[in-house]
Design goal:
The complex is a heterodimer of chains A (121) and B (529).
Chain A lengths: L3 E5 L3 H13 L3 E5 L2 H10 L4 E5 L7 H9 L9 E5 L6 H8 L3 E4 L4 H12 L1
Parallel strand pairs in A: 1-2, 1-3, 3-4, 4-5
Chain B lengths: L1 H23 L1 H10 L5 H66 L3 H13 L2 H5 L5 H29 L3 H88 L14 H56 L8 H31 L8 E3 L1 H18 L3 E5 L7 E3 L1 H17 L5 E9 L2 E8 L22 H6 L5 H11 L3 E6 L5 E8 L10
Parallel strand pairs in B: 2-4
Antiparallel strand pairs in B: 1-3, 4-5, 5-7, 6-7
Helix pairs in contact in B: 1-8, 2-8, 3-4, 3-6, 3-7, 4-6, 6-7, 7-8, 8-9, 9-13, 10-11, 11-13
The chains are: A alpha/beta (121), B alpha+beta (529).
Chain lengths: 121, 529
């Protein structure tokens, strides 16, 4: 059974990139467009990994991460946070929210896959 | 769009308020009215000098009066001396007359007689000289005159008798002369004694007056001295103290502390000055706040803007990378190069946007160092890995010289790596042949990182400019190399936030060495200047 990756991303272009990338290695991709959708999808779709953007409508990536990690039955799902830019200080906040790893935009497709694979294989 | 509409009025609002306050200038005028009834500094100084002058004049007057009194005393003593001299002369004359009359009796010839008569007639001159007689002496003097008159009368009678050859009668009459002379001597002695007593009293009085005036002059001089000192001290206190307070206040303002008002007790020009400084300080504070706000708006704008710019750019970079990676099937050979160009230019654009964001964050003081232990070796090798391919592309040598076994350092590893990366990136960009050397040295409590290249080198005149924002050495070569001109400014800020410093050694045409020194273990972020 193929691995399921929940991608939380509000930009359609970015979702398309990830769609193409994940499809190329045979992962199934579930999509959420904001933090609230992410919380629902994390519970109902039982993904193997969550790729979380920071700047999201309704509920931002930090808060969504914090809430998922606060639930004992969801805590085991690895969350990779995509920070907007290395110098902005997002990393510390992401770490504080309880993510397992982070990648800074602009990420290289190969590097992102490496990080994802660390948790899925 | 939304952002612009919001920020423009709030930029201008505080500035407009200040210029309004400055135009009406109310606070300043109010201050001046309040001070007019109080003595001004000018009046105070004038009063002080007036008092000092009065003191000087009074010392002079007292001295002059004392001198005059001393002079009068001296004159009196001299007069008494003359008087005594005159009395003595009277005594002397009397004796000579007595002697003359006796000789005339003993040797009665015309010579002795004429001599005796001449002496008797001369008598009285000396007495006349004593013309300044005091009233209580007048009686005594008249008595002397009377006795003289009697003496002269008897003397003349004796001489007449001798002339007429009545020697026996003359002898008889002459006997009366002795007691008369004795009486005269007694009287004149009385006068002399009195005069001498007067003189001694006069000398005593003069000595006393001298001592008295000495004490008086000394006392007045001392009092003037003390008073002048007290006055000077009071004046200088009332001038220097407020000046010091105002000076301290200005120092505080210069250091950026606008919160405290300057309080001076003066109600003169200095009080007015302090009030002016206070109102200026308030204006400065308002201006400072509005500038801070403007600066915050600016960095917020830049942060938002760069995020907005990065989002589509990320998509461009993402898709072009997927294309090159063959996610959509192997790209035809002639398409590869254009897509690579898209990638390269996109990354360059991203670098520029990031530089602007970094600098605006640093300038707004929003960037905090995250301090942790790190390994210098790992930091340098990380930078090496990321620039290796760039150097290889230009066929440049890349050497690293880091001493092994350095103790763990403490600082913001990622930012120091960014700084070193910028320096090495620049070195590669501006070097066409030769090699780049990355060196680390432990220097006491500091680590020195240096990047040496064999590139163009930088003219001495340009060496300080390159660390400023938006400055690049202006020649055709750098123009073709591109870059935002922010890289070195960012490096400098990062190094300074670590409490370190950065410098360059270079000669045009002989390469350049950029070095920075940072504390080996930084426990607290350096305050930004």
């Amino acid at each position: 059974m193929s691995k399921r990756v929940l991608v939380v991303e509000d930009q359609e272009d970015n979702r398309q990139i990830l769609r193409d990338l994940l499809a190329s290695v045979g992962y199934e991709m579930i999509e959420a467009h904001d933090g609230e959708e992410a919380l629902i999808a994390a519970r109902t779709q039982s993904p193997d990994l969550i790729l979380m953007d920071i700047q999201l409508p309704i509920l931002d990536g930090y808060e969504a991460t914090r809430r998922i990690k606060a639930q004992s039955d969801l805590r085991h799902i690895p969350i990779v946070v995509v920070t907007s830019y290395a110098l902005s200080g997002d990393e510390e906040k992401a770490r504080a929210a309880g993510c397992d790893a982070y990648v800074a935009k602009p990420y290289s497709a190969r590097k992102l896959l490496e990080t994802i694979n660390r948790y899925l294989t | 769009m939304n952002l612009e509409a919001d920020s423009t009025p709030s930029f201008l609002r505080p500035l407009a308020a200040i210029s309004r306050a400055r135009r009406d200038g109310k606070s300043v005028k109010d201050g001046r009215v309040g001070f007019e009834s109080r003595p001004s500094l000018r009046t105070k100084l004038l009063m002080a000098f007036l008092i000092i002058e009065v003191l000087l004049v009074s010392v002079g007057v007292i001295g002059f009066l004392s001198l005059r009194e001393a002079d009068q005393q001296t004159n009196r003593v001299v007069a008494l001396q003359h008087k005594i001299e005159a009395y003595r002369q009277v005594q002397h004359d009397t004796l000579r007359q007595l002697h003359g009359v006796s000789s005339a009796l003993a040797f009665p010839n015309e010579t002795t007689l004429a001599s005796a008569l001449r002496q008797i007639n001369q008598f009285g001159y000396g007495l006349d000289r004593v013309s300044f007689v005091e009233k209580d002496e007048l009686a005594l003097l008249n008595q002397v005159r009377e006795e003289y008159a009697r003496f002269i009368a008897v003397g003349s009678h004796v001489i007449d008798l001798i002339r007429n050859g009545r020697a026996a009668e003359a002898k008889q009459s002459e006997l009366a002369l002795g007691p008369l002379a004795d009486k005269l001597e007694r009287l004149t002695n009385q006068l002399v004694n009195r005069a001498e007593a007067d003189m001694i009293a006069g000398i005593d009085a003069s000595r006393h007056t001298y001592a008295k005036s000495q004490v008086l002059v000394a006392a007045v001089a001392l009092a003037s001295f003390v008073l002048t000192l007290v006055l000077g001290h009071a004046i200088s206190r009332s001038v220097i103290e407020p000046v010091r307070i105002i000076h301290d206040g200005l120092n505080r303002i210069a250091a950026g502390d606008f919160t405290r008002r300057i309080e001076v007790p003066n109600r003169d020009e200095l009080g007015e000055l302090a009030a002016h400084v206070n109102s200026t300080c308030e204006e400065l504070q308002q201006l400072y706040r509005s500038l801070e706000e403007a600066s915050r708006h600016k960095s917020q704008f830049l942060a938002n803007m760069s995020h907005e710019l990065r989002t589509p750019l990320n998509a461009i970079l993402g898709f072009s990378e997927l294309l090159l990676d063959g996610i959509y099937g192997d790209p035809p050979e002639q398409m590869r190069s254009p897509v690579e160009r898209i990638q390269r230019n996109g990354r360059h654009l991203l670098g520029l946007i990031n530089d602007v964001l970094d600098l605006s964050k640093i300038e707004a003081g929003q960037l905090r160092l995250s301090l942790a232990d790190y390994s210098v070796e790992e930091l340098v090798s990380g930078v090496y890995t990321s620039v290796e391919s760039l150097a290889a592309e230009k066929k440049l040598g890349l050497r690293v010289d880091v001493p092994t076994g350095l103790p763990p350092a403490r600082g913001d590893e990622r930012r120091l790596a960014q700084a070193l990366f910028n320096l090495v990136g620049n070195a590669i960009k501006f070097t066409d042949a030769g090699e780049i050397r990355i060196e680390v040295e432990a220097k006491g409590d500091f680590y020195k990182f240096s990047v040496q290249d064999t590139g163009l080198g930088i003219d001495e005149a340009d060496q300080t400019k390159i660390f400023e924002e938006f400055q690049q050495v202006d020649n055709s070569i750098t123009k073709t190399k591109g870059g935002s001109g922010l890289g070195l400014a960012i490096v400098k800020r990062i190094v300074e936030m670590h409490g370190g410093r950065i410098w360059i050694e270079s000669r045009l045409g002989h390469g350049a060495t950029f070095s920075f020194l940072v504390p080996a273990r930084l426990e607290q972020q350096a305050t930004q200047t």
